[in-house]
Amino acid sequence: MKLPAYSVFRTSRTAMQVGHANLYEIFLFRTRLRFRCPKGDAQLSPSLSGEIGIDRRPYINTESRSSYLREDSINLYFDTILDTGWNLYPKGWFKKPAATLLLSISVNAINPPDRNSYNDLMIPAEAEKWVRAQLAKNISQSQNATFTSYGDYVELDFSDGRLALPDRSEEVDLNIEEVNGHTIFNYSPSANRLTYYTAFGQEDMLTFSFSIKSIMDSDDTQKIELIEKANELVSAIIHSISIEVDYRTSPSM
Fold this sequence. Notes:
Layout: H1 13-19, E1 23-28, E2 31-36, E3 59-60, E4 69-71, E5 76-88, E6 99-109, H2 124-141, E7 146-150, E8 153-158, E9 161-165, E10 175-179, E11 182-190, E12 193-201, E13 204-214, H3 220-238, E14 242-244
Parallel strand pairs: 1-3
Antiparallel strand pairs: 1-2, 2-14, 4-5, 5-6, 6-13, 7-8, 8-9, 10-11, 11-12, 12-13
């Protein structure tokens, strides 16, 4: 049975709970990012840097980018600012969680060799151009990677880590929406993965990457219910995002 992909936002009990969750706030140099973020309760795996449960609050210098990682081969120039996750339970399930919804948020900058290719990422057309180029670069890299298949998605093994990418080479199906005055792009390579992109500077993008990881065996009805719960949580978080560009009272490092 083919599982449904992430769905559109709708009001739900989960959304109401997110609306009362703590406000996550971080300064990206002089930009203030805020969104509702329930306290994570999922067990997290180490990141590529070996850290577990990354949280860069209250400040990260997105001007100097001194902490950024750069990988030209897959067009990445970024730093992770938050890794968190939530346990998911089907209705009437009171034992161990059946799955987890994981969230990794990163700040991304135009890779230095590509700076002449873009004018200003705050212009939606330029931001879309960057997102499509980023995804196309990643997909093209799959030609030189080792594949491991996991149903709806494939995991690609690179020398420096792993990256899950869609098993196709055509132009990606990119969705665009306006959220609280910001243009946000989202892309879902499979039913269990969804990534959002939005600009916060001339050369800067935010990436919210969500994925569902199974823990216990579930039947198809339970899997659909878990994905629906994840949909509601993802949508509520994304629709709470507030980005104040050039916010003047950011704390110093």
